[in-house]
From TrEMBL:
Keyword Metal-binding: no
Entry-linked PANTHER family: OLFACTORY RECEPTOR
A GO BP entry: G protein-coupled receptor signaling pathway
InterPro entries: GPCR_Rhodpsn_7TM, Olfact_rcpt
Protein name from the UniProt record: Olfactory receptor
SUPFAM superfamilies, per database record: Family A G protein-coupled receptor-like
Residue ranges annotated for the G-protein coupled receptors family 1 profile domain, each copy included: 1-175
Record membrane topology: Multi-pass membrane protein
Length: 175
């Protein structure tokens, strides 16, 4: 679900981009068919990344303690419990992290870059305020979600308590 949420946040930024930068063409661009394609694409990307992560995690041998130092079972917590070298799995999960984290973040940054340029060019202060207010909540959630997910999946291992705090932040606070 986390992988799918990454894609959904990128899709939402695209929707906001079209709504603000192509206001008059919004109904013809964002059709029911486009909505379905974006939703199916989000779910498909989440499923594919999850299958790769699960494949590399479940093939590892586990012996000894089965206590996971997290609030829920996620890949970094499982890798710690493995009784063998996990470098290959860590690299595969890292590359999947690039796909599901950095590509959507790049799309969000490009969308919001165009949105900011469009909003700054608006002559109406009320229009600028409305545009920024519609984007503000999404942008804050995206920053919190991606920031904490990148810390969890794309950085060297931190303390267990820090990892727990960050994982709760992106799994509980942002939704």
């Amino acid at each position: 679900f986390g992988c799918t949420q990454c894609a959904h946040l990128a899709v939402m930024s695209y929707d906001r981009y079209v709504a603000i930068c192509n206001t008059w063409h919004y109904p013809s661009i964002m059709t029911w068919r486009v909505y379905v394609q974006l939703a199916v694409g989000s779910w498909t990307s989440g499923i594919l990344v999850s299958v790769v992560d699960s494949t590399f995690t479940l093939r590892l041998p586990y012996r000894g303690s089965n206590n996971i130092a997290h609030f829920f079972c996620e890949v970094p917590a499982l890798l710690i419990l493995a009784s063998t070298d996990t470098r290959t799995s860590e690299m595969a999960i890292f590359f999947m992290g690039i796909v599901i984290l950095l590509i959507p973040v790049s799309l969000i940054l490009v969308s919001y870059g165009h949105i900011i340029v469009t909003v700054v060019r608006m002559k109406s202060a009320a229009g600028r305020l409305k545009a920024f207010s519609t984007c503000g909540s999404h942008l804050m959630v995206a920053i919190f979600f991606y920031g904490s997910a990148i810390v969890t999946y794309m950085t060297p291992k931190a303390s267990k308590e820090q990892e727990k705090l960050v994982s709760v932040f992106y799994a509980v606070v942002t939704p």
